[in-house]
């Protein structure tokens, strides 16, 4: 019921956006991708950080609940990071001419996706649940330490096509207050939906052990 309600809220919110919210300056209809790309990128980063947090907690007391929460956070984080990458590629195609430009942000995000894909490869390769949980927690904790480097530091060190700062600043994407309010509301809605899916995921995982 909660999933349906959150999905309905998102549908109404984005239906309103298409009908009434102005598009970012200079982007035309391509600017619609921003309203999905930014919330997905935010949620992806948030849940990959949560994966590291619960991995550290697992290493502290070996609770299977923390292992389930870390794995579920990685699944949600990876899903939304893939969505952010895809919507970013669509934006890149109609703004810079190509889906993939090997831009620093695109390249570092591809590395992050490979890191967390390897996390699930590691989990699936181990039969012993205690060993799987321990090695996965150590891997995710290390990944959580280096992930901000790839997401926030390196893309700012090298020249990039991606606007930075991204929103409402010189060199960024022009947005008025109505656009910013909608972007924040969309990000909050995506976050609530992701939190609900995460809670369902880890509870089902824990129950099946």
Main attributes?
209 residues; mainly alpha; 6 helices; 78% helix; globular
Structure description:
The chain has 209 residues and is mostly helical. Helices cover 78% and strands 0% of the residues. The chain is built from 6 helices and no strands. It has helices at 2-20, 34-61, 64-96, 104-125, 129-157, 177-207. α2 (34-61) crosses α5 and α2 (34-61) packs parallel to α6. The longest helix is centred in the middle third of the chain and has 33 residues, at 64-96.
Compute the number of helices. Answer: 6
Judged by helices, strands and strand pairing, the structural class is mainly alpha
The largest sheet, given as strand count, sense and whether it forms a barrel, is: none
Helicity, as a percent range: over 70%
End-to-end Cα distance, whole Å, is 25 Å
Strand content is: under 5%
Rg on CA atoms, Å: 18 Å
Number of domains: 1
- Spell out the helices and strands N to C: HHHHHH
Low-confidence parts: 168-172
Strand segment count: 0
Q: Give the overall average pLDDT.
A: 83
Q: Could you say which overall geometry the principal axes of the C-alpha atoms support? A: globular
């Amino acid at each position: 019921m909660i999933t349906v309600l959150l999905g309905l809220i998102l549908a109404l919110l984005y239906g309103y956006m298409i009908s009434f919210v102005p598009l970012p300056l200079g982007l035309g209809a391509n600017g619609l991708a921003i309203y999905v790309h930014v919330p997905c990128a935010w949620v992806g980063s948030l849940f990959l950080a949560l994966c590291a947090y619960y991995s550290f907690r697992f290493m502290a007391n070996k609770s299977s609940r923390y292992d389930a929460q870390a794995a579920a956070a990685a699944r949600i984080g990876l899903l939304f990071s893939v969505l952010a990458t895809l919507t970013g590629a669509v934006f890149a195609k109609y703004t810079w001419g190509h889906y993939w430009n090997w831009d620093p942000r695109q390249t570092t995000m591809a590395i992050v996706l490979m890191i967390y894909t390897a996390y699930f490869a590691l989990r699936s390769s181990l039969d012993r649940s205690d060993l799987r949980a321990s090695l996965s927690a150590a891997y995710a904790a290390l990944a959580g330490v280096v992930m901000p480097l790839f997401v926030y530091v390196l893309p700012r060190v090298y020249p990039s096509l991606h606007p930075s700062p991204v929103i409402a600043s010189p060199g960024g994407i022009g947005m008025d207050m109505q656009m910013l309010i909608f972007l924040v509301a969309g990000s909050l809605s995506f976050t609530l939906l992701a939190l609900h899916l995460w809670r369902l995921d880890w509870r089902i995982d824990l129950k099946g052990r």
